[in-house]
From TrEMBL:
<dbReference type="InterPro" id="IPR036188">
    <property type="entry name" value="FAD/NAD-bd_sf"/>
</dbReference>
<keyword id="KW-0560">Oxidoreductase</keyword>
<keyword id="KW-0503">Monooxygenase</keyword>
<dbReference type="InterPro" id="IPR020946">
    <property type="entry name" value="Flavin_mOase-like"/>
</dbReference>
<dbReference type="Pfam" id="PF00743">
    <property type="entry name" value="FMO-like"/>
</dbReference>
<dbReference type="InterPro" id="IPR051820">
    <property type="entry name" value="FAD-binding_MO"/>
</dbReference>
<protein>
    <submittedName>
        <fullName>NAD(P)/FAD-dependent oxidoreductase</fullName>
    </submittedName>
</protein>
<keyword id="KW-0285">Flavoprotein</keyword>
<keyword id="KW-0274">FAD</keyword>
<comment type="similarity">
    <text>Belongs to the FAD-binding monooxygenase family.</text>
</comment>
<dbReference type="Pfam" id="PF13450">
    <property type="entry name" value="NAD_binding_8"/>
</dbReference>
């Protein structure tokens, strides 16, 4: 691409204008109104996941009282919200906090190079609309691009797929105007996307079959929160929101901890709920009893039991089998059972992509992410003035994103007050043998070798525990296990090093 010289220098550069990036900008706008902030978004619009995914029925897989921002209450009636409502919430938040004008769409970050002499990042950016390459400089690089590829979902190489006469669609690339009314649809997969698609498609399709290689734990939850409805009628909006947010957070943590400590009890509870919701004699142990323990993989949420309803009414069915081959008219399973289909949906997961796929270079040395250690689940050892938002795997993404945004804000304040220009996590002596994400899901395991590691103890260990992280990130120190440095403007070397 043709390149241009450095166009501008900003204090904080945020990469990604989805739920995390907009939230981070709002936090900085409130706490650091004098700082210059720019948000770069590779796609043509803000919203991230909630703008990208357009498949039927797309919705949150957790309640909006925890997926919503801490500083802006979710006011819609439904606690389990549809994708367009969440996208509207992000846009409204960006406008309310006046950060929408900070976003530059069609700007994909390619690389970032840190120079310790000046304590600045030089960031190369491709303009996906014009083909031009531009360059910016910033003091702090804040990546809010999530951890999966936006341009391609994961699709296995299905044997014989070219023989199939109908379309094979990945939900990440749902074609506009696809007509599935009166059609036979097979959804391959058993995760959150699949259990969302099945009941929605079943409303108008002739029949929908979910073909899964192995079961997933599925839990029904009311689409509306009764306590939230009562409190909002009696208390100020922000107070009601905070109460329900904490209630749902603690409830989710309790279920997670019970799953870890008493997995057989949770298995029995989930099985009992499924038996009660499905037709008498249904093969629950075949289709809804995984071999792993609850929360070894993320649990799937179905609002008001909609998927169970579709199965009970005969509009949908579940087949637990493997694919032998595609045929002209559908899929032949390994058991010999044929599945006739007009449309096949490959809800087979995502591809991980750390830090948006950008290249990091520190003082001329490329950063190998797999050799770094995650600091407080948000920074990387040996990488100065850098933060990366990764939400919870066992709770709402935004709970952690909000805490990270508050921590970054506190860290910038500390740098200002003490006259430092840079902060670098120092993992000297830290044992880093644990995987970054503690999930057995296929999409995680496929790319785990490319991700940072975590250590055995704080601040290098992730606990996936909101209460502990409130103490660590919102209340805890910002000067532990890090090196602070100062740099003279225009100097060719650092001066004054302080390790805390």
């Amino acid at each position: 691409m043709p390149s241009s010289d450095v166009t501008e220098d900003v204090d904080v550069l945020i990469v990604g204008a989805g739920l995390s990036g907009i939230g981070a900008a709002c936090q900085l706008k409130q706490d650091h109104p004098g700082r210059s902030v720019v948000i770069l978004e590779a796609r043509a619009s803000i919203g991230g996941t909630w703008d990208l995914f357009r498949y039927p029925g797309i919705r949150s897989d957790s309640d909006m009282f925890t997926l919503g921002y801490r500083f802006r209450p979710w006011t819609d009636a439904k606690a389990i919200a549809d994708g367009p409502s969440i996208l509207r919430y992000i846009h409204d938040t960006a406008r309310e906090f006046d950060v929408h004008n900070l976003v530059r769409v069609n700007h994909r970050v390619v690389s970032a190079r840190w120079d310790s002499a000046t304590a600045r990042w030089t960031v190369d950016v491709d303009r996906t609309d014009t083909g031009e390459r531009t360059t910016l400089r910033c003091g702090f690089l804040y990546v809010c691009s999530g951890y999966y590829r936006y341009d391609a979902g994961f699709s296995p190489d299905f044997p014989g797929v070219d023989r199939f006469a109908g379309p094979v669609i990945h939900p990440q690339h749902w074609p506009e105007g696809l007509d599935y009314a009166g059609k036979r649809v097979v959804v391959i997969g058993s995760g959150a996307t699949a259990v969302t698609l099945v009941p929605t498609l079943a409303e108008t399709a002739a029949h929908v079959t979910m073909l899964q290689r192995s079961p997933t734990y599925v839990a029904s939850r009311p689409a509306r929160d009764p306590l939230a409805d009562r409190l909002r009628a009696r208390l100020p909006q922000k107070l009601a929101y905070a109460i329900v947010r904490w209630k749902n957070t603690l409830q989710g943590m309790a279920i997670f901890q019970l799953s870890r400590r008493r997995p057989e009890m949770v298995k029995a509870m989930l099985r009992k709920a499924a038996v009660a919701a499905l037709p008498e004699g249904y093969a629950v142990d075949t289709h809804f009893a995984p071999s792993y323990n609850p929360w070894d993989q993320r649990m799937c949420l179905i609002p008001d039991g909609d998927m169970f309803d579709a199965i009970r009414d005969g509009r949908a069915s579940v087949v637990t089998d493997t694919i032998d081959t595609f045929t002209e008219t559908g899929i032949a399973c390994a058991s010999g059972e044929p599945l006739d289909a007009d449309i096949v949906i490959s809800a087979t997961g995502l591809n991980l992509l750390a830090i948006g796929g950008m290249e990091l270079v520190v003082d001329g040395t490329p950063v190998d992410l797999a050799q770094t250690v995650s600091y407080k689940g948000m920074m990387l050892s040996g990488v100065p003035n850098f933060a990366w938002t990764i939400g919870y795997t066992n709770a709402s993404w935004t709970l952690k994103a909000d805490l990270i945004a508050q921590y970054v804000s506190r860290l910038l304040t500390y740098l200002d007050r003490n006259g430092f220009d840079a902060v670098t996590p120092d993992a000297t002596g830290v044992s880093a043998a644990k995987p970054f994400l503690d999930l057995a899901s296929g999409y995680v395991q496929r790319s785990m070798s490319e991700m940072p590691k975590q250590g055995d103890a704080l601040p290098w260990r992730l606990h996936q525990n909101y209460v502990r992280d409130v103490a660590l990130l919102r209340r805890g120190r910002v000067d532990d296990s890090v090196t602070f440095t100062r740099a003279h403007a225009g100097a060719d070397r650092r001066v004054a090093v302080t390790r805390c």
